[in-house]
Each structure stands twice: as C-alpha cells, then as structure tokens.
Amino acid sequence: TLGGYPDFMAKEINEQPEAIERLLHDRLGEHGIEMDELNMTAEELASVDRIYLVACGTSYHVCLIARAMIEDWAKIPVFCEYASELNYKEPLVTDHTLCVIVTQSGETADTLTAARRMKGLGCKVFAVTNVLGSTAARESDGTLYVQAGPEICVCSTKAYTAQMVACSLLALRLALANGQMDQTEVERHFRNLQAMPALIREVISRRWQDQEASRLFRSAHSALFLGRGVNSTTAYEGALKLKEVSYLHAEAYPAGEMKHGPIALLEPGFPVVAIVPADHVHDKTVSNIQEVIARGATCIAVATDGDEKIAKLCDNVLWIPPVPEEYLVPIVAIVHLQMLARYVAIARGCDVDKPRNLAKSVTVE
Ligand code: M6R
C-alpha cells in the first residue's frame, strides 16, 4: 500500500534511508565485513584476479560505481558489461574471474543469460539482488540480498542506492581478503557508509529545491546531464530517471566530453544539470558550468553546502550536505535527481509509477 504517499515513487524514495540501515545492520564483524553469502573461502576470495560486473539499466549504473571502488580499494581489474552486450561477445575469463550480476528483480532475461554463460565458462557467479528466491538468486553460487523491500514503481530508486551500498560492502570484503586494506581501514569506510541514511534524509527534507527546479523544465524539449568521475554515473542515472518518468529527452555525458559535441545543443533556456560536489574534480566541472552559462543555457547544479562559487554562478542549486567520502557522493546526490524527475513528470501529467512501454522486469531478451 501507499501508506499515505501520493505514489510508489515518492514512497520508495523516502524508504531509502531505512533500506540502507537494514542492509548495514550486523555487517561489521571482528574480522571485517560479514558476507558469508559469497560462499567463497578466504583463499578463493584472495585469488580473484578479474571481475565482470554485469547488469542492465539502473543496475548497470550501480556496476559503474562499484568498478571505481573495487579497482581503487581491492586493486582488482573490473570489466563492466551491459548483459545484452556481453551475451554476444567472448568474455576474457581467467581461472580466477568472479562474475557479479546486479539485478533488482533477479528476473531480467539478459542478465540471467549472461550469468549462465559466465558460469559455463567456469566463473563463480555472485548475485546482488533485491528479490528473495528469484531466478538470479537460485542460479548463482552466492547471493547478497539488498533487502530494500518490494520495489513497485517501474522506475528504480531505493534498489539503486541499496545496491550501491551492497557493492561497497563487496569491495571492502575483497580488499580485506586480498590484503589491500586492513581491518581499521575497512572500519573507517564502514562508518562512512553508516552516515548515508542521515544524509539521504537531509536531502529528502530539501525536496522543495527539486520542486522549484522542476519549473525550469516546463518548456524544455531536452536536457543535458553532466558530471565527472563517479558522478558521471550520477549524470547517466539522473538522465535515465528523467527520460523514464517524464518522457523528456535527456542525455548524459562526462562533463569534459561536453566540448566534443554536446555543447552544440546549448541555447538560451536549455536545461543542463551539472553534478559538482566538493571533490577533487570540482574546479574542472566549474569550468564546464561557466561554458554552459556563457551560452545562455540554464544550469541546475547539484553542489555541496557552502559552495559559494556555485551559489554565485548558478541560480538553481540542489544542495547536498558534505559527504565523508567521494565514492559515496553518488548515493546522496542521486536522491535529488530522483525527486527532480518525479516533479518534472508530475508537472507534465505523467503516471510516475507506470511509465508507458516499460515493465518492472524485462523477461525477454
Ligand atoms: O531488475 P533489474 O535490476 O535487473 O532491472 C534492470 C533494468 O531493467 C532496470 O534497472 C530499469 O532500467 C529501471 N526501470 C530503471 O529505473
């Protein structure tokens, strides 16, 4: 039931903090991250030398963030693949390749086919899913349930953030197993993950900012989303949310790519959403925002509280509180873009829970 919310999208956006709290509960043990579900011995885990992360849609975006963390923390090379692409090429599998499939429903046909193929090639297959007893869970060697609770809205929100947290735990587990991180470091990262629910609650309480910004899309035909590093993924996911629920065309690019083509789209009033948190690439993205503004386009920034440069430069800012770790910013920043997409869709008279042409789980290849 809706429990007082106007639609499932609103309900599920609001459920994100509790979903993450559930997932983190009892995960930090004396020996690091508790993840027996992996069904792999310490030796097997330590010997993983390559990882394939495979998924579709929003779950694929989770893989892009997971790659950054696994490569940095565990120093294991990662390949991210759309399941529908991997199914028609030859994966480069070693004797110690781990395949991780990420699927909210656990029933996405392309993802299941990819998992079966990787298994056939001798890989261990691990599933990150939200649905207990799903096909993905039954057919995998191990399963991590993200426990976000049933996601009814076709557009994925709480599963996205919960899956990102689940993959952070996996990255920490791998880093501890292969000696790239010690217990103290793992604990430090875990504490940062524990800060996520409160930060998301804070962003949700600022939803009026998204409601205001949604007015800028009133006469728009298209929108551009920009971000750098892990937040180029926030841009991809923000654009997907907007397209899916509001039927407004949206494209996303790593901010530095704008000058290689998309800049030609800019004209007065064209909405550009720039994710520009306080991080090591902040000033580079600010330069892109200056280019956007110089062409008369409208910039809607997602920025960190206290960023005076952005406050001066942009009329429209979706503010996020400071996040203790750069890799975790996407978990907080996306909440604004989920709410923005919802408000734009409602203003355009769309049914946010059941967008046209889409099914909650895509069971055909
Ligand atoms: O259930 P899955 O995570 O495997 O679904 C994958 C995609 O179909 C799904 O994420 C889709 O992109 C969502 N509707 C996006 O909001």
Query: What share of residues is helical?
Result: 40-55%
Point out poorly predicted stretches.
Answer: none
> What's the shape?
globular
- Our count of helices gives 15
Bin the strand percentage.
15-25%
* SS-derived structural category: alpha/beta
Order of helices and strands: HHEEHEHEHEHEHEHHHHEHEEHEHEH
Question: Order of strands in the sheet with the most strands?
Answer: 4-3-5-6-7
- Bound ions, cofactors and other small molecules, one mention each: 5-amino-5-deoxy-1-O-phosphono-D-mannitol
The count of β-strands is 12
Mean pLDDT: 96
Catalytic activity: D-fructose 6-phosphate + L-glutamine = D-glucosamine 6-phosphate + L-glutamate
Subunit structure: Homodimer.
GO molecular function: carbohydrate derivative binding; glutamine-fructose-6-phosphate transaminase (isomerizing) activity
Enzyme class: transferase
Topology:
Layout lengths: L7 H7 L1 H9 L3 E2 L2 E2 L8 H5 L3 E6 L1 H18 L3 E5 H4 L10 E7 L5 H12 L3 E6 L5 H5 L2 E4 L12 H20 L5 H12 L1 H10 L1 H8 L7 E6 L2 H17 L2 E6 L16 E6 L5 H13 L3 E7 L3 H6 L2 E5 L8 H19 L18
Parallel strand pairs: 3-4, 3-5, 5-6, 6-7, 8-9, 8-10, 10-11, 11-12
Antiparallel strand pairs: 1-2
Helix pairs in contact: 2-8, 2-10, 4-8, 4-12, 8-9, 8-15, 10-15, 11-15, 12-15
5-amino-5-deoxy-1-O-phosphono-D-mannitol (M6R) binds next to α4.
